[in-house]
Specification:
Layout lengths: L1 H6 L4 E3 L8 E3 L5 E3 L5 E3 L1 H13 L7 H9 L3 H13 L3
Antiparallel strand pairs: 1-4, 2-3
Helix pairs in contact: 2-3, 2-4
């Protein structure tokens, strides 16, 4: 799965520490990351890590769908990154 994700990878600026403690709600502007490490990678991975952390809390919503829409990443790609992050025990 990681090899497939790397095939169409578009590098960009990533947070690098997308834990729930580094995400704040900024009202009309949605969610914002704070305290970045500033790394090169795919921001969908940051979103996947955040989704895993949120999914650990019982909820009635499909968090992967919600996060994918919020960060404008295809849900299937987010779920693939969630699997990679989970396997890495992030």
């Amino acid at each position: 799965m990681l090899a497939e994700l790397a095939q169409d990878h578009v590098p960009g600026l990533c947070h690098g520490d997308a834990s729930s403690g580094n995400v704040i709600s900024s009202g009309m502007h949605g969610w914002m990351y704070i305290d970045p490490r500033g790394m090169s990678g795919e921001y969908a991975y940051d979103a996947a890590v955040m989704a895993i952390r949120i999914a650990a809390v019982p909820s009635s919503i499909d968090i992967a769908n919600f996060v994918a829409e919020a960060v404008q990443v295809p849900e299937s790609r987010l779920r693939d990154w969630m699997a990679v992050a989970h396997a890495a025990r992030v």
